[in-house]
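Hi there,

I know you've been waiting on this one. I reran it after we fixed the sequence typo, so this is the corrected version. Both the input and the resulting structure follow.
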Amino acid sequence: MVDGLNLFPPSEKNLQMRNRPFAGLLVIVLLLLAAKPALCQEQTAPAQNPPVVPQSQAATPAQTPASTPTTSLPPSTEAQGAAPLRVMVGKSLLINTTERLKRVSVTDPGVADTFVVTPTQILVHGRAPGEVSLLIWDELERSRSFDLRVDVDVSAAAEEEKRVFPEEQIVVTPSRSAIVLSGHVSTEDIAKRAGMIADAYSKNVVNVLTFGPVGAQEVLLEVKFAEVDRSVISQYGINLFTTGAGNTIGSTTTGEFGGVKLGNITDQFPKTGPSTFPTTASVNDALNVFFFRPDIHLGATIKALQTKNLLQILAEPNLIAVNGKEASFLAGGEFPFPMVQP
């Protein structure tokens, strides 16, 4: 050792201690150099294609509940006269618009509620039967007006009518707060029962159902009610006539009135052929009662002398009845009229 310097050569142990930090640093550098290509390879590697799922193993989408009915706004009813928007009581309607909306309103919130769901969608909810105006404003403050009608829900009533009368043609439609029954049924009893079923769903029911056989014939009957004075009943005239039993022609009359030539009555006889019988009976007057029985070849006319004020017409109702059905009318009654008090 000279002047504090160690002249002895370093031992092997000292060399190992001095070289250990350099060896550790060298190991770290080598590891970094080895990892760098791997990192570069991971960044530049192309993306792998996603695995293909076979069609037999593809997952089916989950079923979603029925959505709210959706419609698009027609042109403004003020300009085009478009049909009104309709929604049932207790139901909702989703309306799509082409413009972005700023606000919306209805004239009567008790009939319908409105909500802006998105800038281009309106949700309308029916609360009570009625008709209101739907007003919308876009972002440029331009306004439009539409008619909104809220009707009573008839779906349940229609299903019940179909269940009870599956063979009948009953149409159930809403008209604001009323249920309208239309169509054709076989009998009057079914028409009444259908109205009773509809009464359970609404207080206002309009029953316009028709009934009876389709294409049934109708009969028109003209009825006359007359009043005759009993004291002059002897002035009635009666004419009797007969075509005979094939070879006899005759007639008789009371002589109370004369007739106008009517023409010839042709009577068919089984053996001798047709025979004609001239008459003086007039059936042009509605007050003549005329009848003829071919089986006994006998006819008669009865006439009241209306021209001599012996008879007064009280009522002349006309009845129309379906063939095989009954018809009735109301005659008489009272009506007020002014009188001069003494």
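Quick highlight: Confidence is low (pLDDT under 50) at residues 1-19, 35-66, 259-263, 277-284.

Best,
R. S.
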